[in-house]
Design goal:
- By secondary structure, the protein is an alpha+beta fold.
- It has four helices and eight strands.
- A hairpin with a 4-residue loop joins strand 7 and strand 8 (192-197).
- The protein has two domains: 28-95, no CATH class; 98-197, Immunoglobulin-like.
- It has helices spanning 36-41, 45-50, 69-91, 143-149, and strands at residues 98-100, 103-112, 115-124, 133-141, 157-163, 168-175, 182-187, 192-197.
Length: 200
């Protein structure tokens, strides 16, 4: 095959830095004419941001919750509120019960027509010997209710129940009058318990 019949390069008419017949020296360092740093130096900020290597952080549940000051304040407010409610519930501030001589009492009033049905649940407190015997109960409208109604003559209802040695007991009795708030006095041989409650 003659030189004229050999296939030619597309850029055969351009002078190359080294001819095809040049001997390549393996020890000669390569020269790169493309410089990314120099090109990015004149590029817009948006283009430069594309070449910034983003660090992949490990999953963190707490960091997004406190990433800013308002988020951190809200997060710690929720934590403090939760702890306060938990402590107060343990101390019994949210418990609708009273203690009487080693017995835990849950008292509830339910309005029915023109009277109130009282429900008293008794349970013996842990590590204590609950009182057994008669319990006198006096129920009357609360003083605030009487002042609002303008009636100084307060009807008083008396009732007696008996606590036995059983761990749990339940008592029901009806009060022959209705009031938005009731004052109760429970008295044993040893102590007296005074409470106010609103019937449902």
């Amino acid at each position: 095959m003659s030189d004229e019949e050999k296939p030619q390069r597309p850029n055969a008419n351009y002078n190359l830095s080294k001819p095809d017949t040049a001997v390549v020296d393996k020890d000669e360092p390569l020269h790169f004419y493309y410089n990314r740093e120099r090109r990015l130096a004149n590029a817009p900020q948006a283009v430069r941001d594309l070449y910034v290597v983003q660090k992949h952080n490990r999953f963190n549940l707490l960091k997004p919750l406190i990433s800013s000051k308002p988020k951190a304040m809200l997060f710690f407010t929720i934590i403090i509120s939760f702890v306060a409610i938990f402590v107060l519930s343990i101390m019994g501030y949210f418990d609708n019960s009273w203690s009487l001589d080693g017995n835990k009492l849950e008292i509830k009033g339910i309005k029915y027509e023109e009277m109130v049905i009282m429900l008293v649940k008794k349970s013996v407190q842990k590590n204590r010997q609950g009182y057994t015997g008669a319990v006198d109960i006096a129920v009357s409208p609360a003083a605030s209710t009487l002042i609002t109604a303008g009636n100084e003559d307060s009807p008083v209802f008396y009732h007696r129940i008996f606590f036995s040695a059983q761990q749990q007991e339940e008592y029901r009795f009806a009060i022959p009058f209705d009031s938005s708030e009731l004052a109760l006095v429970l008295q044993t041989e040893k102590s007296t318990l005074k409470i106010k409650m609103k019937p449902e």
